[in-house]
Design a protein that fits this description.
By secondary structure, the protein is α/β, with parallel strands linked by helices. It is built from 14 helices and 10 strands. The strands form 2 sheets. It has a 6-stranded parallel sheet, with helices on both faces. Strands 1-2-3-4 form a 4-stranded parallel sheet, sandwiched between helices.
């Protein structure tokens, strides 16, 4: 299937949501149009997320049964910063027949908002373990270009504040000052592009950094396979799909020490955790990985084993049906649009 193509039997329905950034002013229009869509489609069940946006709108419509889905950042990142968001999340969960999340941290937060534990389904999504797999030998071509003497670090997160990519740039400047063989590959783009370029430029390391831009799913595994180390400085994650991709490709990782990552990474086994928000500690972790280069192969094997045990989409996705079964069996669930 080509990137972006819809599976057979899936029919897209256009509505006002997603046509512009969400704002409070848009809420009445979004509610009206969502009710129109519900009347048109006559669904048996709605699944929606994040909790304070699309799922909240579905709950406001009064539709049942509703399976709300946490996107991680709603509970982990946005809710602590806004009483209004916390109120919306509580309303959504009070009106959800079931909830889906991707890690146990999300489960505990949902329970704290009043969601019954027995109506929460947790599974870590997953990936295609055949598509994302270790390479017999490093790839080249339009992927990472390096020599055996160089040590290549890969970042795949968007260049937005929530993902800490600015922190990666600062850490790389510090680490590269000690070890000139370090190289950094930063996929993607985002609102912090100018800032990141300035940090790397002022640090005198732009010649050590590659910027391939947005990479499609066909080419993405080659970047993981060609790197020595995967890195993520995200300030908020449930189960990170890019982390699972790196593990599946047999790459040791350095990731921020946040609850979602701690559910996956054992210090010194699949890689390293470092104190979230501390660029200096991240630089030290990079230097530690380079000093322990001879251990990285075994760490990569441990990473792949973990992915095979817990990140196989073909084994994980049926868990989603449990949420549907719970929702369809909740008493008094009915459509009220």
């Amino acid at each position: 299937m080509k990137d972006g193509a819809l599976p057979a039997g899936v029919t897209p329905v256009t509505w006002a949501g997603g046509q512009a950034d969400y704002s409070d002013d848009l809420e009445p229009h979004l509610l009206t149009d969502l009710k129109r869509v519900i009347d048109q489609v006559q669904p048996d069940l709605i699944q929606a997320g994040p909790l304070h946006l699309s799922a909240y709108l579905a709950a406001r419509c009064g539709f049942q049964p509703l399976v709300s889905m946490s996107w991680g950042y709603d509970l982990l990142y946005d809710a602590p910063r806004s009483a209004k968001i916390r109120q919306a999340i509580r309303f959504t969960l009070e009106n959800s027949a079931a909830m889906v999340g991707d890690c146990n941290t999300i489960r505990q937060l949902a329970i704290s908002y009043g969601m019954p534990d027995e109506r929460i389904v947790i599974f870590p999504w997953g990936i295609d373990l055949e598509h994302f797999s270790p390479a017999d030998a490093p790839t080249s071509g339009d992927q990472i270009v390096s020599s055996k003497k160089e040590f290549v670090i890969l970042s795949t997160r968007g260049w937005e504040p929530i993902y800490g990519v600015e922190e990666i740039a600062r850490a790389f400047v510090q680490a590269a000052a000690h070890r000139p063989e370090l190289r950094l590959v930063m996929l993607g783009s985002g609102s912090q592009a100018v800032l990141i370029q300035k940090i790397l430029g002022d640090g005198g390391v732009l010649d050590k950094v590659q910027f391939p831009g947005q990479v499609d799913q066909t080419r993405l595994p080659g970047y993981y396979q060609s790197a020595d180390l995967y890195i993520s400085a995200s300030h908020s994650d449930g189960t990170s799909i890019s982390l699972l991709e790196a593990l599946a490709c047999g790459k040791p990782v350095i990731v921020s020490d946040i609850p979602g990552n701690r559910e996956w990474i054992e210090q010194g086994n699949q890689g390293w955790l470092y104190p979230e928000g501390d660029a200096g500690a991240l630089a030290e972790a990079i230097l530690t990985a380079l000093k322990q280069r001879e251990k990285l192969f075994e760490m990569g094997r441990s990473a792949r084993r973990l992915a095979e045990q817990r990140a196989d989409w073909t084994k994980n996705f049926p868990e989603l049906f449990k949420a549907y079964q719970i929702a369809l069996n909740v008493p008094n669930a009915r459509t009220e649009s």
